[in-house]
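Thread: "does anyone have the structure for this chain?"

Original post by V.I.:
We have the sequence but no experimental structure in hand. Need at least a predicted one for the grant figures.
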Amino acid sequence: MIVVMKQGAAPAQVDHVIQRIEQLGLRSHVIEGTELTVVAALGEKRDGAKQALETIEGVDKVVPILAPYKMASTEVKKEPTVVEARNLKVGGGNVGVIAGPCSVESREQILEVAQIVREAGATGLRGGAFKPRTSPYSFQGLKEKGLQLLAEARDATGLAIVTEIMASEHIGMVARYADVLQVGARNMQNYPLLEAVGESGLPVLLKRGPSATMDEFLLAAEYILKTGNTKVMLCERGIRTFEDHTRFTLPLASVPYLHEKTHLPVVVDPSHGTGKASLVAAMARAAIAAGADGLIVEIHPNPDKALSDGFQALTPTQFKQMMSECKKLAQCMEKIKA
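Reply from O.Q.:
Generated one for you, tokens below.
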């Protein structure tokens, strides 16, 4: 349930509500709005809790949260959440663009891509140092060396680093180099990992699993949010269907639907969502038109020679063209491209 404080409620009154919530065996989370303060009371239902909280001085009303995902719901927070990492800003009218290669392959490659990404107007650099591959014999990434190269690219360009985290034991190492931790589709329901990335305090980009429902997706986000880390971005990257003309099916209706249900920003990945470079720019434009708060796109200096997923990577020329088109669309949608 959520405890809605009266307008102008004193900090001491909010503190008293928090104390009472915890005495009832629930967890509290304060959400500061522009006009009102709301305190979420999270946990299993307690008999008499609603009545006990309603009588506290400074409380306006106590409202049950109906959605199974409590912290992610618009019932708890009406205002859109904005997630920031360095110059990358996603949500609240800002369209953040993250771009880079599927995997970090060499110093020359990642530094070249970083310069292209920055010059085209994006503010986030993606690149896999640890790569989850279907085949154990495929390129698995440069690991910590790849992270060091990403950090060097950040120093050279100012771009925020977004990279995938695959295991809880890697978080300390990855956090030394990255600005945003990406949880890949394969790990969307790896709940210990979700809690661990939440506890890191870093912004998190959570990708939807290829077979996950919307409720499952939002409940996965809830595992991160309940740690107190509110810097969560949802990423629609396509689902598995009977269609085989694309790598996955990219359901862009997810974007407005999620905006109805959650205050969290929504990022779209047209690279994984289609698996074909020729379709990426069109779906990126469509994502912006659908109201997406961000894009994450794969780009490679020479896709034909990429060590992973070259078939869905844009060339530098294609990426610059895509960015130009998306910027015009964002302006038409009265959004700010960040």
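V.I.: this helps a lot. The chain is about 35% helix and 20% strand.
O.Q.: and The radius of gyration is 21 Å.
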